Automatic annotation (TrEMBL), chains A, B:
UniProt GO molecular function: DNA-binding transcription factor activity; transcription cis-regulatory region binding
Protein name, per record: TetR family transcriptional regulator
DNA-binding region: 47-66
Domain HTH tetR-type: 24-84
Keywords: DNA-binding, Transcription, Transcription regulation
SUPFAM superfamilies: Homeodomain-like (SSF46689), Tetracyclin repressor-like, C-terminal domain (SSF48498)
Organism: Streptomyces capillispiralis
Pfam families: TetR_C_11, TetR_N
């Protein structure tokens, strides 16, 4: 019975060129393809041509959904990293920030993902459309997730109520971006640990 | 006597095309011209052609000293802002950081200087020569000045001895760059004040 009910739909879902699949499913497939490509090879070899070939989706459809390579790359990147870069909540803000920031630093320094982001940020300094896409598809979304976790820490009494947690986003993740974009100093585990300690404990003598 | 000793040299120093002036003096003149141009008009209209015309120095000489527009812009920018962005030392690290960061935020948000830097940082993501020039001419020098001031605060017992002050550079100036490069949130005076307070006081409840 299970086979009968799921069989044809399941086959239709995986086969290509055998009738129409739901658009959501096709989109998710494309984003998976793009995300894998970005995290293994980087952005240089990402072309609509290649994504069309690999995913079996026409270039016309791809351009309809993602008007530029930057938009396609960002959306693929977001989908590729959303689980790795989730914000854990074990009710211990120090431990959770360290976990998340270490995962973030790993993606940024050990996979081509870091290069993808710094190049997109770079290009967005002179490309207004890309800057808008970057904020809408990626950065404002990531900022919101971070702020939500920091607000819960405030509710749990681990961060003072008078602190504007938006500023902490710039002093944690923003500080990492600073070292990636202007690499005078490296992103190390000691750096990540110090970012969290400096803010939670303060740097003045006791 | 004074006139006789200084007269001819002084006249030679200010006149153009009246014999050779010392190279250092000519260089300083060019950098002043470039710096003024950058802080009033931005980088878009900066060309070797125009700098040659304004400063009366041949393009050949300009190219010899600064092999690219990026290198020329950076050097001019450094000279234009070095006094405004000096690191004061009144023996009060909180007050001095606020003074310096406010001057920095002003240059970055109220003059074309901010755009100059963010565009150069942007371009340096894909231009290795510019990235090297940026670090050598600008960022590593600015970082060193900040670190020197923070080290003096450590010696004066205002910052704990176990703190790696390099990290504070990323959590103060780097946090400002983050808002400039990815403008999800604005650079305001409240932001600058919070940057300093969060680090000196910590964000945990007392």
């Amino acid at each position: 019975m299970v086979n009968k009910a799921n069989g044809p739909a399941a086959r239709e879902g995986t086969g290509r060129g055998r009738g129409r699949r739901p658009a959501d499913e096709v989109r998710a497939d494309v984003l998976r393809t793009v995300g894998e490509l970005l995290l293994t090879e980087g952005i240089a070899d990402l072309t609509f041509e290649r994504v069309a070939r690999t995913s079996g989706v026409s270039k016309t459809t791809l351009y309809k959904w993602w008007p530029s390579k930057g938009a396609l790359a960002l959306d693929g990147y977001v989908h590729a990293v959303q689980e790795t870069l989730a914000f854990p909540d074990t009710a211990d803000i120090r431990a959770d920030l360290l976990t998340q920031l270490r995962a973030f630093a790993h993606v940024m320094t050990e996979t081509p993902g870091g290069r993808v982001l710094t190049e997109l940020i770079g290009e967005s300094q002179t490309d207004q459309d890309l800057a808008t896409a970057y904020r809408e598809v990626y950065s404002s979304h990531r900022r919101r997730l971070a702020v939500e976790r920091l607000h819960r820490a405030q509710e749990q009494g681990q961060i003072r109520a008078d602190i504007d947690v938006q500023v902490l986003v710039d002093q944690l993740w923003g500080a990492v971006y600073h070292r990636l974009l202007i690499p005078d100093e490296p992103v190390t585990d000691a750096f990540v640990t110090a970012l969290v300690g400096n803010l939670l404990d303060g740097v003045r003598p006791a």
